[in-house]
Amino acid sequence: MSDLDQLTQSLARNLRRWRGERGFTLDALAARAGVSRGMIIQIEQARTNPSVGTTVKLADALGVSITTLLDHEQGAQVRLVPESRAVRMWSTEAGSSTTLLVGAEARGPLELWTCRLTAGEGTTSDPHPEGTVELLHVTEGELTLVVDGRTHRVPAGTSATFEAHVPHGYRNEGSEPAVFTMVVAIPPVR
Description:
The protein has helices at 3-22, 26-33, 37-44, 52-62, 66-70, and strands spanning 78-81, 87-91, 97-100, 110-117, 122-125, 133-140, 142-147, 150-155, 159-163, 168-171, 178-185. It has 190 residues and is of the alpha+beta class. The protein has a 5-stranded antiparallel sheet, with no helix packed on it. It has a 4-stranded antiparallel sheet with strand order 5-10-7-8, with no helix packed on it. It has a two-stranded antiparallel ribbon with strand order 2-3. Strand 7 (142-147) and strand 8 (150-155) form a beta hairpin.
């Protein structure tokens, strides 16, 4: 498959996904984006490769970045964010600060969890509904994150996000406790 074919297929898949996740009909997205309904149908069926301007309009109307709309990754995408890549938003000389650890583009119910796994323990989760995203930040030890059969090591200070509509689990394969904070973003019920 050529790069252009892959891009066309990715855009078709992601446009359908995000339009569905936002609950937009073809007509609603067309009105929000200023793009014809027919053009959206052609894009979603991978029958055309739209201009950058059209793609930007669609991304803006969906409230996602153009990179999210063009993302060609298959399956459950996992993104690890090392501590050095976290974004310090503000700080004071006295030591107060806020840091954006990791973000994802999702809406709906959110759950905030704190988790502690002692050495050798773990837990698994069945797939969540399509569109569910999990974000986590390890504060102590090292977490072994397993998403759709693939293992990812997440050391203290590192954040991660992944699409949780596939089997996933958390293990502590180290000798010290692993402590992490997790947010689960569940899509709204339609």
